[in-house]
Amino acid sequence: AKRRMEIRLTAGSRGAARRVVLLVALLAVLLPLCCWAAPERLRYAIPEELSRGSLVGPLARDVGLNPAELPVRQLRIVSGDEKQYFSLGADNGNLLVNERIDREDICGDVSPCVLSLEVVVENPFNIYHVSVAIHDINDNAPHFDREFVAIEMIESTPPGTRFPLDSCRDPDIGANSLKNYQLTPSPLFSLVVKESPDGRKHAELLLEKNLDREKERNHHLILTAVDGGNPVRSGTAQIKIDVIDANDNPPLFTKEIYKIRLLENLPEGSLAFQVKATDGDEGTNADITYCFSHIANSARQTFSLDPRTGDVKITGPLDYEDVKYYEATVEGKDGGGLSAHAKVHIDIVDVNDNAPSLTLLPILNPVPEDSVPSTVIAVINVRDRDSGDNGEVTCNIEGDLPFRLAESSENTYKLVTESSLDREKISAYNITITARDHGSPALSSRAALVLEVSDVNDNAPVFEEAAYSAYVAENNAAGALVLRVHARDADAGTNGLVSYWLEGDGAGAAAPYVSVEARSGAVYAQRSFDYEQCREFAVAVRAQDGGEPARSATATVHVFVVDRNDNAPRVLWPAAASGAGSGGAGASAVPFEVVPRSAEAGYLVAKMVAVDADAGRNAWLSYELVQAPEPGLFRVGLHSGEVRTARAVSERDVSKQRLVAVVKDHGQPALSATATLHVVLAESLQEALPELSDKAVESELTSDLNLVLVVALALVSLLFVFTVMLVVFFRCRRAR
Length: 736
Fold this sequence. Notes:
Subcellular location: Cell membrane
CATH architecture of the largest domain: Sandwich
Main location: membrane
Pfam families: Cadherin, Cadherin_2
CATH topology of the largest domain: Immunoglobulin-like
Number of domains: 6
Number of strands: 51
GO molecular function: calcium ion binding
Protein name: PCDGH protein
Largest sheet: 4 strands, mixed
């Protein structure tokens, strides 16, 4: 194939060589003046039938890539065609032939024959549109549908009568297509070649002289068709002419050319059209039968002709996308052997019977939630095999989504982000892309893409409360749970994993009191709290996520120590160790007060004073008189602690009175203390002194007696222990 191309270029392009040289020189002058830009469309040209792996063009070099960049830029073909005619070289990025390319199968009579594809590179992203022109080579010889053609001629046929012959078909185009017909020399016949408006050549057999059946009943000719390729290819058909008796009126068709338009969706068995011919003869010479004298195999499988009525019916499927045009020749022959021919041109009309096809190539999935608008998510390739409005396709995205379609070329779209994404609101999108053509009725197809949104650390932890309050009873155990703080982070994975710390690495006045567990946020007491020393304190807890960089938030924890009744009331007066009379008498072991015997009811004897280190109800004190020689003589204020006379003092009352009062708080359980007050009934301090002296002597004697009793008890105990030891010793010795 390469040699044939070289021959064709050498033989047919010498005249264009000079123009090419001039064009190259002109480009060499103009190109340095232009700024370089990436081409919108790359164009290559190759002959058909190249072997697999043949070079089409240096694609990587033409898009500005060197071999070292290929792994990073990820050069690849994203064409949506069903057949992959091309591939990329893995080491150099050259565009290579991947499958056999037959121009006649792909394009038929269409010229030029161009295959289009899209090529994608990444980092940065770009799309290149590549067009490959397929040049024809002379790989097909002309071919007749019938190798043997039988023609019946009446001997009375006048000279100059023409008989259409089977046309020859050559799938090649241009110079390689059918060029001419040749006929073996004959004195009775010659060949006339006509060219139709569409450029096709048709051969007709011209009768030069009168026929004489009695001299020669049969004539044999060879018709040769040659093309214009180099080397020349040809095809032949044998023509047998039978001379029959005269029938002077040939059939006559109502039309010389039947032009028919058929919708491609007509069902099989439908009547396509009818041909009609008339004959001026009578009898069997007027009976006309119809047949296809020249028809392609594809048309013969699609249409059938009724030989009696001339009805042409559809016997196979019509598909505009496969065959757009049929041509045939109908022969009408009467019973006498005369015939007439009419051309039939059948145009297939496209209907919207093909839905668009979508090919979706994901580029970025999952997509980070901090992606900027216009980030490319995927490439969509759209194809519709119909033509005209039926092949015009519009794509759109269903629903209200933060994405849009950007048209890259006629059949290619880019799916890009339109606005910012937030994974915490929507973590995945179900994107449905609809392609709808402009036919009537319109057909559509859909492609779905599940797009995941990946997380970035864009959310700081948030505490459930800005400030926490905890109430802990004093005297708690060290390590007791105070409360739990909790912060939520809307991010996922390590970005949403929250750890807790004391603000400032636990430094500060409140640090010795509490600690926080990093994972759970539990705040524990480091020591036992004492309400009387510290009633409340505050500590700052920081919640930090595991992102990079990390984000954090702070909450304040207020700890209030709740008082317990752990302190008994303490009596300040009367004191147990010392006291002084109201009249300023000398020191005494027990406090005393002198009350005149003339005192009336309500006389203030003394005021007991007590305090409680606790707070609240635990510090509310009440006083009660629990011991008195004369129960009805004195009373004590419940809350004031004032000791007053309940009645007037009488002569019968004992001179020395010993009063014992108890002081209680209101805690649960209640704690108490006692206070002892000695009262002497006397009119003056001098009268009370003898009583106080006797009391002192009595106190001293009592104290000495107590000491003697304690010493005697100790001696008796020692003697008892010693006796027991002696008894045990002698028993053990006797046992030995």
